[in-house]
Specification:
The protein has 4 helices and 7 strands; from the N terminus they run βααββββββαα. The chain has a 7-stranded antiparallel beta sheet with strand order 1-7-6-5-4-3-2, with helices on one face. β5 and β6 form a beta hairpin. The protein starts with a strand and ends with a helix. By secondary structure, it is of the alpha+beta class. The chain is 34% helix and 41% strand.
């Protein structure tokens, strides 16, 4: 099963980074290039424990739907979202936030399993793992940009 592990330093308080990472509105901005939108469940604001969200986006040339749910939440240290329905056989995304003197270390652990057995494994190796990693890196850079500037105020309304 592929696992993507990313670590991002953000010069902002962990509570801010935590909330920006749970923001449906910021998530839409980070994946605007895929025309990703929340179409059911929690479609705006901050997602909370046991809340679902269904995403609609264009990936790999096809409109896709993915329903996920926040299955674990420990404010402001971590949360986990897991696929409930979608193209993957399994998908789990753990988000961890470690407070440090000059900001936050944000850690993503993204695990997924593709369908179609050996063909799925080959697609993962040749393309899909890299594609997902680039999307997550792009998302993390945008979270960093919002958290380290006044842009976060437009998302969190504080």
């Amino acid at each position: 099963m592929p696992t993507i592990h990313l670590t991002t330093f953000i010069a902002a308080p962990s509570e801010r980074v935590f909330d920006l990472s749970r923001s449906i509105d910021l998530h839409k901005k980070t994946l605007a290039h895929t025309k990703e939108e929340a179409v059911a469940g929690t479609i705006t604001g901050l997602i909370e424990l046991n809340e679902p969200v269904t995403w609609k986006a264009k990936h790999l040339g096809k409109i896709r739907f993915l329903k996920s749910k926040l299955t674990e939440l420990k404010k402001p240290e971590s949360f986990t979202d897991e696929m409930q329905q979608g193209d993957f056989k399994m998908m789990k995304h753990q988000h961890h936030f470690k407070k440090v003197d000059n900001g936050t270390i944000m850690i993503d652990i993204f695990q997924f399993e593709s369908p179609y057995s050996s063909i799925g494994k080959l697609v993962n190796k040749l393309y899909l793992t890299s594609y997902i990693k680039k999307m997550l890196e792009h998302r993390n850079l945008l979270i960093k940009d919002y958290a380290e500037t006044d842009k976060w105020k437009s998302i969190l309304n504080r």
